[in-house]
Amino acid sequence: MDYLAVGLAGFLGAVARVLVAKYIRLGYSGDFPVNTLTVNLTGSFFLCFFMLIALKRLRISPRLRLAVGTGFCGAYTTFSTFSLESINLLREGRVFIAFTYIVITAFGCVVFGLLGASIGRLFTRHEKRVEGIQSE
Fold it and tell me: Where are the alpha helices (DSSP H) in 57-130?
């Protein structure tokens, strides 16, 4: 059952990735891979936000956490495309763009993850009942 949950959520994550990347490409035509960067930054934010909320506030089941974290976020974000785009930029002699992309992605994903977790903490500070489950 875990495999099915991951697979279905992965399908949704992959479709979301294509839609987000396509939408971003409509408004941007430069050399910088802004679509992949946006997907990875928002994916990092969402994963950390979701996991904090899932564990501290809503007590979401391990299967759903696996589906969203591994399935959806795993298919939505893309380290392999980031790697390929970085290598292609270096091959084309666009060293500055490649270096900038690598640095922004590496640090940006960590910063967006921290931001997601920080915002998630705002939802875990209240001692209210959520969906019949008492929060810590």
Answer: 62-66, 73-76, 79-91, 95-122
Range of the domain at 45: 2-134
Tell me how long the chain is: 136
Q: How many domains does the chain have?
A: 1
What's the pTM?
0.84
Distance CA 126, CA 136 (A): 9
pLDDT in tens, the chain (136 residues): 999 999 999 999 999 999 998 998 887 778 899 999 999 999 999 999 999 999 888 888 999 999 999 999 999 999 999 999 999 999 999 999 999 999 999 999 999 999 999 999 998 876 454 443 333 3
